From TrEMBL:
Gene3D superfamilies: Vaccinia Virus protein VP39 (3.40.50.150). PANTHER family: RIBOSOMAL RNA SMALL SUBUNIT METHYLTRANSFERASE C (PTHR47816:SF4). It comes from the Bacteria. PROSITE patterns: N6_MTASE. The keyword S-adenosyl-L-methionine applies. One of its GO terms (biological process) is methylation. Keywords: Cytoplasm, Methyltransferase, rRNA processing, S-adenosyl-L-methionine, Transferase. This is Methyltransferase. It comes from Neptuniibacter pectenicola. InterPro entries: DNA_methylase_N6_adenine_CS (IPR002052), RsmC/RlmG (IPR046977), SAM-dependent_MTases_sf (IPR029063), Small_mtfrase_dom (IPR007848). Pfam families: MTS. GO terms for molecular function: methyltransferase activity. Residues 174-340 form the Methyltransferase small domain.
Amino acid sequence: MSDSAFPLLAPYIKSATTKSLWLADENFLDANLPPNDAVICITNRIDLHEHLQKQGWKAFFSDYDLSIIEDNSLERVIYRVSKEKLVAHHLINEAYRCLKVGGELILAGGKNEGIKTYFTKAKALFGMGENSKNAKDTWLAKLIKTNQHSDDALDDKDYHQLRTGCIDDRFEYQSKPGIFGWDKVDKGSAYLIEHLDSFLMTLPEPPKNALDLGCGYGYLSLNLTHLDIPVTATDNNAAAIIACERNFARYPINAKVIAANCAQGIKDKFDLIVCNPPFHAGFSIDGDLTDRFLKAAHDHLNEQGIACFVTNMHIPLERKALKYFHQAECIMSNGNFKLIRLTHKM
Ligand SMILES: C[S@@+](CC[C@H](N)C(=O)[O-])C[C@H]1O[C@@H](n2cnc3c(N)ncnc32)[C@H](O)[C@@H]1O
């Protein structure tokens, strides 16, 4: 898997000699860059954070909270645009705030990712800029901050603010931009919850605990409340962790949230695992991610437990799962989604 936009930024990260900031998005994938002392890195993905720290980078994990950086203090900000428009708007605004007059924002991304629109909006904010087309319809844009104040901030819909993302007949889900499907209930996840009992009746006894693997804002966890068991929810995305914590505080659920890369570091094992796995890292389909989620489910499932996965029909999850599980059975499908039950050898 390769990203054609990120390599356009690598020379700017390597060549930075004074106070610079690299905003690392999930699109960074597994690229390796030698650490540069002039650059600090902020990412909202805990796996990237761990990866960068291991390589020797000065890296911070947060929901792109740039308040640790003073106004007008940076020479260069480097950013490969994110999948979510409001994340990109928030970060372009913050780059403007943090840069000195004369400082530069270097952006890269694909035409189909909105890079040209970001460039136009950012140029109005910054005052000066140029962009150039590269291979595979990817663009590199350089913006120069020419003024101390501007009325042309991009609309980020108050990025950090949690809000009611959606409501169903059981819960009002607090959420925010930057989280998977932040303003809706995912149809696959709803299908899993609708048929949760079909999974549970195959257990020898009621589950004593549960793991929500890749929890997002916590939809699956909240819909386990009636089971009255401790739930552990985990995700790699800082925004998801924040929203989940808020949702768990608002309802009577015995649940905790842990930021982790595919549940790494969670020592407990569980009778019930619920999961709507991701298939994309940023703009790319990531086949390895499915494998890593299956392995995480395997490693965290009790001997007699069940892992309940929901996926799109076209994902060959059952075949992949047999690498890790004794049994992988599609228990139900509706033409769009299928529910898969995974078990160890009994
Ligand atoms: C398809 S979404 C499901 C979200 C939620 N369970 C729901 O039903 O709305 C998959 C989730 O996996 C998370 N994810 C992606 N890569 C991950 C990783 N390496 N470790 C943990 N979670 C990850 C994403 O942030 C996202 O929240």
